[in-house]
Design a protein that fits this description.
The complex is a heterodimer.
Chain A (H helix, E strand, L loop, with lengths): L2 H18 L41 H11 L12 H4 L46 H5 L13 H10 L3 H9 L6 H12 L8 H6 L7 H11 L19 E2 L13 H4 L8 E2 L20 H7 L11 H4 L9 H11 L5 H4 L11
Antiparallel strand pairs in A: 1-2
Chain B lengths: L3 H17 L14 E11 L2 E2 L8 E2 L5 E2 L3 E13 L4 E11 L7 E7 L2 E10 L33 E10 L4 E9 L3 E2 L2 E2 L4 E12 L4 E9 L31 H10 L4 E8 L5
Parallel strand pairs in B: 1-14
Antiparallel strand pairs in B: 1-2, 1-7, 3-4, 5-6, 5-8, 5-9, 8-13, 9-10, 11-12, 14-15
The chains are: A mainly alpha, B mainly beta.
């Protein structure tokens, strides 16, 4: 190659390299594989909600969500083929469980409640103690957990590879038939990101499509002022701030919660504040399911005090307890957070049931 | 010549590629080489470095002992000012959380090489910018709850801890010094406020590095810094029987009056040279 040809090639390469960096308009190349590129899935978020982000390495697609739904409800991912994600995360209960502790494989029980999964794109760190940082990472945990599904990932992948249906589903979702743990959890996470609760009465009121009754409006005021002081940990519109708090559940901490993740003494006994969306449709509350919803509200009138308890809770020591009537009113407002469209959405139900 | 012309064309194209596709379109061509700066925040209580989660031993002006467990705040329009009247925007909006190291420093490039004399910012956000979900980098715990007829965006500060309610028994309760766009009786007040802190002038040379330290003396929130004006703005937890201050315009007003007296700053500059 002559000098000038080499120089032209170099110049062209520089031009390409310089202009493709950070250029959002560049179309990614089609996947190299046996199947066509999956169909991008766009989620429209209602006004008033934060922008919904997706991981750059796991954009939602129609085929990916469909695969994730199959996997979420398929007991093939458990050692004895009895347990699926959907066994303990029930749609009608806001993808939580009615039981104090969920029954895992071979009758084993854990020591924390299966938390609700609602609008999880906004969920932040997952599990009650926030020990994982993405839905994808979370989905890697229950399969090999000996209390939950007890199946080594290598065996899970072999099972899926031998399946008559899954190789084609993975091909449709990812462009080729390779099945890996990373692809399994990506698909499950994509499906979970469709767990969108945007149409409760509360939401309709915000959009101007409905109105609160006077009792509901009064309950909202209690919720949103320092009298009820619910909002600091359960902010609208998500009704969680994804933050961790010691709410004075025990006089002596039994479950160290967040502390076991961070090692920070200030995190002793802290657990994640869950979303209150669809709370009226759930049966048990707190990480160990010790309360009904009403009991959970009443707890803030007589929590166990101690230096580790959150100032947001201890500030109540100087306030008069909430009266029964105020709690009734607050409960009425909480009822407006139920979203039947979410709890019965046919696209979220098990594909294996009629 | 015939073999040199393509070479020249190639070099020209390379130059266009390098300049035309720059990552930072806000820096116009011909901008002189500039310096950079790192901004950090320090915290003291009555001049002593802050220690979190200790037994309540800090004292308000009224003598009430307290400790500090949580500090989060928002500042906006952070600027450095030069001795010839120019200002450089360091950051439009910054969220700080003592519990989140990722929020605790700001790095800025493209700083004019100049002699800097002061820093200014708005503590909080003015009404025009304090809108719900306006800033994705600010977490939901800073949201300010909507009121009927008003939907603001964010708290400006959450300073929390415990204070001693009984000096004899050393009993304590929680306090939550939360400031923001307080709203009461159908009227809103913008409790953000401007802050300006001068420091010993420092010259940031071309290619030099500045280190800006902004210090908050946290007890300053509770101190009347201008007693001579006859308006007592001192603040004490014990005078707020229920600690509900988010809609308490008097309490918010005192904190707003005391806030500007909390801040000081230093700038040191190293390296670089001017032509």
């Amino acid at each position: 190659m002559k000098l000038h040809q080499l120089a032209l090639c170099l110049a062209a390469a520089m031009l390409l390299a310089a202009c493709s960096k950070d250029d959002k308009t560049v179309t990614p190349p089609p996947p190299v594989g046996d199947c066509a590129a999956p169909t991008p899935l766009t989620i429209t978020v209602p006004v008033g909600f934060p922008e919904m982000t997706q991981p750059a390495d796991n954009p939602m697609t129609v085929e990916g969500v469909e695969l994730g739904r199959l996997l979420f409800y398929d007991p093939i991912l458990s050692g004895d083929s009895t347990q699926a994600c959907g066994t303990c995360h029930l749609q009608g209960l806001g993808f939580s469980d009615s039981r104090k502790f969920s029954e895992g494989i071979r009758g084993k029980f854990g020591n924390r409640h299966a938390p609700t999964i609602v609008n999880p794109s906004y969920m932040g760190d997952s599990f009650w103690d926030g020990r994982v940082h993405s839905l994808e990472e979370q989905a890697t945990k229950p399969v090999p957990n000996e209390i939950e599904m007890d199946l080594p990932w290598t065996t899970a992948i072999e099972r899926l590879q031998k399946s008559k249906t899954y190789p084609d589903k993975f091909c449709a979702a990812f462009g080729d038939k390779r099945i890996t743990m990373q692809r399994v959890v990506k698909a499950i996470a994509q499906f979970e990101r469709t767990f969108l609760s945007f149409n409760s009465k509360y939401d309709r009121v915000q959009r101007g499509e409905d109105t609160f009754t006077p009792e509901e409006a009064a309950g909202q005021r209690i919720f949103n002022n320092e009298r009820g002081d619910c909002f600091h940990c359960h902010q609208a519109p998500l009704f969680t701030t994804n933050t961790f708090h010691n709410t004075g559940l025990d006089s002596v901490v039994v479950d160290r919660g967040r502390y076991d993740v961070t090692g920070n003494p200030a995190d002793m006994g802290k657990f994640k504040a869950p979303s209150l969306r669809n709370c009226m449709d759930r049966f048990v509350f707190e990480h160990d399911s010790r309360f009904s919803l009403r009991e959970a509200v009443e707890h803030y009138n007589h929590f166990y005090d101690g230096p580790d308890v959150d100032p947001l809770i201890r500030v109540r020591l100087t306030r008069k307890p909430m009266r029964v009537g105020e709690i009734d009113t607050l409960m009425t407002f909480l009822g407006t957070l139920s979203d039947p469209d979410f709890l019965t959405n046919p696209n979220l139900k098990s594909p294996y049931q009629p | 010549m015939s073999s040199i012309r393509p070479l020249l064309i190639a070099l020209l194209v390379s130059a266009v590629a390098a300049i035309g596709c720059s990552n930072d379109p806000t820096v116009p061509p011909g901008t002189p080489t500039t310096g950079s700066a790192d901004v950090s925040f320090g915290f003291t209580v009555n001049g002593v470095p802050l220690v979190l989660n200790m037994v309540p031993s800090y004292a308000t002006p009224a003598g009430t002992l307290y400790n500090i467990k949580t500090l989060r705040f928002i500042i906006s329009n952070l600027r450095l000012h030069t001795d010839d009247g120019k200002s450089v925007l360091i950051k439009s909006v910054h969220y700080y959380d003592l519990g989140d190291a990722t929020t605790q420093t700001i790095h800025v490039n493209d700083l004019l090489h100049a002699n800097y004399t002061s820093v200014s910012f708005t503590f909080g956000l003015d009404d025009a910018h304090n809108k719900p979900n306006e800033y994705p980098s600010i977490p939901a715990i800073m949201n300010w709850p909507p009121e009927p007829g008003a939907n603001f965006g964010y708290h400006y500060m959450q300073l929390e801890g415990n204070y001693e309610t009984d000096a004899g028994t050393h009993a304590t309760a929680g306090y939550t010094t939360h400031t923001g766009p307080a709203y009461a009786s159908g009227t809103s007040y913008d409790f953000s406020f401007p802050v300006s802190a001068s420091f010993t002038p420092a010259h940031i040379h071309e290619g030099g590095v500045g280190k800006l330290d902004i210090n908050f003396d946290l007890n300053g929130w509770y101190m009347d810094h201008t007693p001579a004006d006859g308006v007592d703005t001192s603040y004490d937890f014990k005078t707020l029987a229920d600690q509900m201050i988010m809609g308490n315009l008097d309490a918010q007003g005192k904190l707003r009056a005391n806030g500007p007296g909390c801040f000081s700053a230093t700038l040191t500059a190293t390296g670089g040279h001017d032509h």
